[in-house]
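Revision sheet: structure tokens.
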Amino acid sequence: MVLETEVTRLFSALDQSVQYLAEAESQSYLESLIQVGPYITDQEIPETFEKTLLASLDPFWSGTFTKESIRRAFQLSVLKGLKSTDQAHHHVTPDTVSLFMGYLAQLLNFKQESVITVLDLAVGSANLITAVLNQLKTPAHGIGVDVDDLMIRLAMTNANLQQTTLELFRQDAFRPLLIDPADLVVSDLPVGYYPDKQQAQSFKVAQESEQPFSHHLMIEQHLTYLKPGGYAIMMVPNTLFQEDERHRLNQLIQEEAVILGFLQLPSSLFKTDSQGRSLLILQKQGEGVQKPKQALLAQLPSFSNKEAFSSMLLEIQNWFKDYQSSKSN
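Predicted:
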């Protein structure tokens, strides 16, 4: 309840300020959201806007808020701004899914004394990656890549407001990247066809393919920039292993990783069955990595069904305990 109150208060402060700037500057809601970020973090407002914004932004300075409260308030603002755009490829990962992916990340076997790197090559506004970073008990920093300039600037604003360490790169994530290998990948993969067929031919999953799938390419790219023994939790289509070109994807995964789990998300999260998504959990091949006797396969109940979902969480937790125990024996 306290978190919800904080989120409501912060969103109201953001929304009021952003709407004022959008009107005053004759610009979009999202551009105004980016503009207001430094006013909050630097506590410096141009004299032109000072009288109005000092009052509306006061909640950010007069209280102490968690990163999660700030993230959720910012997410609500991004969602409002996206509704006014005509770019269908812009979306925010459902908050319940982001939090659940963070829960799964906590179950992985990271050394507590190490600072781990978390990577998302489809970072968008950084809602997913910061939700996971906020939940990890291990010290961590993030790396995000996106080709869209607006999304990168939103991600930077989001990270700065939360005071989260996040390196951001604006470039086509399907091309070679100058980034260090990561310990953990979390990503809501873009689904569809990748238009640059020539560039796609550098990927194993797309060789000689007439219409390469962007989500297949993205799985390979994430594995390329994942450390040996590192983990990946990726949001993929339910039909991932039933699609055309799946044979190349299957071969890639068999050669470079082991499948730990495939968890189908509740259908209630999606408007149509064709939009249904699952969470693919992989571990990249490396020293000490072994295939589980039985991968974690499940259809998740509705997140709102507390009893059924709590039971599922217990099953998942026990699976990870058994798997980690089997590796140490």
